[in-house]
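Protocol step 4 of 5: obtain the predicted structure for the target chain.
Materials: sequence only (see below). No template structures provided, no constraints applied. The aim of this step is simply to have a reference model before the mutagenesis design in step 5. Sequence pasted as it appears in the construct record:
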Amino acid sequence: MKSPAQLLAGVVLGCLLDSSTAAVPPTRQDPVRETLFGQEVVDQYRWLEALEKDSSEVLEWTDTQHAHTRSVLDALECRESFATALRPLFEIPSIGLPRARRAMLFYTERTGTQNQAVLMSRPFQSGMAKVLIDPNSMSDRGLVSLDWWAPTEDGLQVAYGTSESGSEMSVLRVRTVGGADLGDRIDGKVSFGGWFRDEQRFVYGVLADPKDPYSRQWRVHTLGADPTKDPTLLAQSDPTRIPFLSISDDGRWLVGGVSRGWQANDLFIARAAEWARTGEFKPADIATSLDGRFEPIGVLNGRLYMVCTHESPRGRIAVVDLKYWPNLGPNSILTLIPEHPTMTIEDAKLSLERLIVTWQKDATNDIEVFDLDGSSRGHVPLPGLGSVSVSAEEDRNTGFISFTSYNYPPTISAVNWNAATEPPVEWARPKVPMDPSSVSVEQDFATSKDGTRVPYFLVHRNGLKPGGGGHPCLMNGYGGFNISMTPHFMATNWPWYDLGGVFVVANLRGGSEYGESWHQAGMLANKQNVFDDLFAVAEDLIKRGWTTAEQLAVTGGSNGGLLVGAAITQRPDLFAAAVCKVPLLDMLRYDQFLMAKFWVPEYGAPADAAAFGWLLGYSPYHRVKAGTHYPATLLRAGENDSRVHPMHARKMTARLQANTSGDATNDPIMLLVERDAGHGAGKPLTLRLAEAVDDWSFIAWQTGACRKPDSPSAAGASSTVPGG
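Step 4 output (structure tokens):
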């Protein structure tokens, strides 16, 4: 909410709305009344749950909402300056971590104005890189994306998945390194589980019924065979239990299990040769119905390596000696690297002779290399506090790492795992049209409602200090599904920094920053902790003089969109504006749409009396109250979203508009439903740029930051790839 002084400042800064901005029309109410566990619940906007293809009324209503939103956003005079400043930042090239296969390297790259990244291949030692798969050539509008890719061990062919308009319904094909597609095609949101050693068969997951997200099966396909006759090894039998399966790199073992939410899974292993000989899939159980995750890393020298959180919430590395197969079970799991007292295992990879562990401490990463007996070989030198990703292969002692931070562009370096403590050799680093060192990164801690210490990152231009009336500030968080918010380079934040804006990332409970106990402290009945953590960080920023409630905006997507919805309904006094993307908001009906039953282990089932209580307690849609001055809010959804249904954003928009005491001119409630996008994956550059211009213009206007940012020069924006 803005004071008169802020509104006046908006005039001075040239970011006021045009006086012709149209008021949003009222939305038809058609109340549906239900009595749930003794409580009457009224839903005035149930009719907005239909997709546009199924309801002309929803289509027309959305068109009306879009017209209102565009009348607001297009009138912001700062739009043009943001568009000018942001375009070269979106055109900064990007390069993915390479994978080595025999004498070949494979990696993704996006350059200049390309909408989508392409898959490149090149000889490992020297030679020119060439385009192997270009999804940009598959759509005039850049709406086809490359979802995943997996080369064979000999590097002569690649299985890959593409989907369109953000649907994530991957279609599998196989292409030779010569550039020709084979005749094999498999539809149905396909995921990949690895190649057999004969390079003619592979394991894959697919929806048996593409319309049923809970029908995943794992099958084996032989090149040239009819996919409808592929043998099924594993099938989903429960919406909340997700099967997984892969074949080990040595081709001898089929490793799989069933995930029970994001905190636990069962694990088994079977001999691939025995299945191929008999046609019977008879795995030996390693862990069943135990609390904790058993995440396979790989099989090397007859031992299965895994990350285990059972009785070790920060994670430990464990091994199973497969010479005892099939007589395995929990007692066969032996600890190789014990749980660390202060760090959490984020990831682990195997090389020919080494085990590479990525640790996480206070939401930053460290890499330690171990012998296969668990002895430490030392830590890989990193440029500073940031995030790393590792590429390692079981047939070689060399690999790659990618390092990034808020003021460090993602840089790929080559590493010899046998000389881990030697500095990595830079392999690829994008040239960027700004000075990354012009931005400072701090880590601070807030105290949550129950006394928990909550870390957060604070990013701003050099020399900016707290006080002086505060600064425009944008907060971001997630807090769920065991996902950490670690530092990464965000070039498109630079116009915000140039305006004197502060960017904050809060590491809330529900993530994996401090292990499984941190995750469980923010799920199910503990979900309110996540929201309290966010409020604590916001209040800490205000207390320390970095910002004020009139200058503070919050943004988040998916589960982070739920976070934003909770923020504006529980603490509307704390935020001036919100951008709520592909959100979950109606928590009493969330599990009735798309693939949302997968998330019952994280949130709870509304049909359960206990879960109903806590879900109703924080469900943003149900917490909207008449006469409340809600922050200006921009809600976003994707009509093709296969994860979170756009009904959440539609219904919330209608309910907020009907109940807010704010006016549509100064504190608008707005909706944008992207009809060529889904949950966010695969969105082309053109749509991402348009979205960023809208979001930043809106945030800058509402926080009083809006003036024309300097447009950084795009000169020299290119990437350096050896031999490419």
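Step 4 remarks: The first strand starts at residue 32 and ends at 36. DSSP finds 13 helices and 40 strands in the chain.
Proceed to step 5.
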